[in-house]
Amino acid sequence: MVENWWARRGPVTLVAAWVLSVPVLALVAAVLRARPDVRLLTGAEPFVGHWAVRTGPGLVVVLALLVAVVRYGPGLAARLPWRGLLPAAGAGAAAWAVALATTTSWDDLTAPARGRHEYLAVVPDVLADPRGFLDAFLDPATVLPTHVAGHPPGLVLLLAALDRAGLGGAGWATALFVLAGASTVPAVLVTLRALGAPEATVRSVAPALVLAPAALWVATSADAFFAGVLAWGVALLALASAPGARGRWAYAAGAGLLLGACPLLSYGLLHMGLVALAPLALTRRAGPTLVAGLVAVGVVVAAGLSGFWLWDGIAVTHEAWAPTGAARPYLYFAFVDLAVLGAIIGPAAVGGLARLGRADAATRTVVVLALAAAAAGVLLGFERGEVERIWLPLAYWVVPAVAGLRPAARSAAPAVPSSWLWAQGGAAVLLETILESPW
């Protein structure tokens, strides 16, 4: 009887619990803030930012896109040729992210990239002396912007290279971040199909991926770029591991290059790389994973021989972060992280987790590995808040849980109910309207 009740009411119950957790965490934050030894976020716990109602002419575009995706997205996802669905899904995700970011002003799209704590602030120094910058990067006496100091130097070096090629500045950086982040959507679709998920199921989750509230931080944060690199690394590995794959070893080598670049972009991508185990777990084909792993290790070693050893970077960053971590209560931020994960994957994905057992093996495996990676970040204690951007590389891997919301049918696979898509997009619109985020 309990199982029947959960099958009927589980998704709504889980979403209700998640929604209730947000004001509860805000109230707990108000109490904790009175303690002198506690350092919280910026006043909008569990999120980073400030509560402020903001609307503008761009809201009309946002609502029009929401209506279009809910009304026509499932049909297009079902009918488009596979090679047409992938760019359409990526373009839809990019349009949704940009529309949300420009609800009040076009300037809001590039403003995060121009922040004083961000990467572009040090690009002139890298251009002036790349070798000197790298040599001094891990020196505790070197003063760097917050996000530069808290990450490996990979992205700064890439932005400097783009600048030298004539593609410098906030506009090009924003384009890089948004396009890479939006490309995560087709990468997830490619991965699921290559790993054996029914194509009808893969197509049915596309609209929910496009409308995921994670788009709020795709435009614009550098973590969107990290998400794209990880996603395509996993997608190439899935293609390499698929039965009868052509170009198997080329795919595996490409996967290794991208996956090897991940820890040179963000230390958090080390444990988020758990998602890359999905091809091995599902296909039991070890060769492509072994090749990709060897190439990835080669990339990390090459970076070390060039002047940046990953483990040294982790040690220095952990030591610098320790005072901040000590001031953020572990247990409280564990719940904060879970609540924010629910926000970035959206209510449709939260509800879908209640019926994940209905999904196919490929979808279940990908979702569970992404959740395990998030849990690892919480248990390790390094990710205390700010996960709306930090967990972008994981968010789109959890969203396919919406497959569990599809009504059971023996014939043509039905789409995710439109009510859940309205909730998915509506959550993004609501957060954009009432939360002023620095990203």
TrEMBL record:
State the protein's name: Membrane protein
- Report if keyword Membrane is assigned: yes
- Alphabetic keyword roster: Membrane, Transmembrane, Transmembrane helix
Q: Give the signal peptide as a residue range, or say none if absent.
A: none
Q: Which residues cross the membrane?
A: 12-32, 52-73, 85-106, 172-196, 208-237, 249-278, 290-311, 331-354, 366-384
Q: Does the keyword Endoplasmic reticulum apply?
A: no
Q: Give the species this sequence originates from.
A: Promicromonospora citrea
